[in-house]
């Protein structure tokens, strides 16, 4: 059995980025899903910080989706996510870094500003892989979890407005920069495509997104999906998932 464990949130775009890289490279691993809010103590104990995803490989701990991909490129280089050409590699890493640093936090603030008020539906989305008792307890505690998430991520009206602006900017950039090959850099799938598609996935929840979405879907999720699915950048995200998101 693999000694690689991905500590993750089930419904999270940064965690999806790490999952996708592992699956794309065919790396056997376990997934340990934690619940937002409740995750803080075990992750602090493991890593000394509070964020997921975290990859645990034997005694080695790698925190953060970007660091995880860089690690996988060294330990499991095939198929590659970093372009061989130096210029293309630098551009792919720049795009990936922009999505990580600018888009990921912004879309998260806007998305959760809309989702968290739907307490029951939001809680159900985060516990779709849990037993009924766990889901019931988590729902009862969700007002506390919601307050923690708002404080940790800066979820407020101003942050949401800025997040919507950056989200639109990100979809526009994708639509503008995608090449004839359907990729953001060069003529093959790279870390740029994976990062952009994964971090925009909450706006669209593509069919290949490897998390069961309970029905009826939260109103906020339906509205985000409807808003962005017709955007050229949204269509690119859906097509990138269809072409490259290998079964998990």
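-> sequence recovered:
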């Amino acid at each position: 059995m693999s000694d690689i464990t991905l500590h993750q949130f089930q419904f999270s775009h940064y965690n999806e980025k790490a999952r996708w890289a592992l699956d794309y490279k065919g790396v056997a691993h376990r997934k340990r899903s934690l619940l937002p809010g409740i995750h803080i103590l075990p992750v602090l104990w493991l890593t000394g910080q509070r964020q997921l995803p975290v990859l645990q490989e034997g005694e080695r701990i790698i925190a953060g989706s970007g660091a995880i991909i860089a690690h996988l490129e060294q330990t499991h280089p095939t198929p590659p996510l970093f372009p061989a050409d130096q210029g293309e590699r630098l551009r792919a890493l720049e795009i990936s870094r922009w999505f990580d640093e600018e888009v990921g936090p912004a879309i998260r603030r806007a998305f959760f500003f809309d989702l968290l008020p739907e307490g029951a539906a939001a809680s159900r989305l985060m516990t779709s892989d849990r037993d009924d008792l766990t889901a019931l307890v988590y729902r009862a505690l969700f007002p506390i979890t919601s307050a923690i998430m708002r404080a940790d991520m800066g979820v407020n009206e101003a942050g949401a407005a800025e997040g919507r602006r950056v989200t639109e900017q990100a979809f526009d950039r994708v639509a503008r920069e995608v090449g004839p090959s359907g990729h953001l850099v060069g003529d093959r799938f790279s870390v740029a495509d994976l990062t952009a598609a994964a971090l925009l996935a909450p706006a669209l929840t593509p069919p290949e997104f490897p998390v069961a979405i309970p029905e009826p879907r939260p109103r906020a999720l339906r509205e985000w999906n409807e808003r962005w699915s017709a955007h050229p950048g949204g269509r690119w995200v859906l097509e990138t998932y269809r072409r490259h998101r290998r079964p998990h």
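Strands lie at 4-9, 30-34, 54-57, 60-63.
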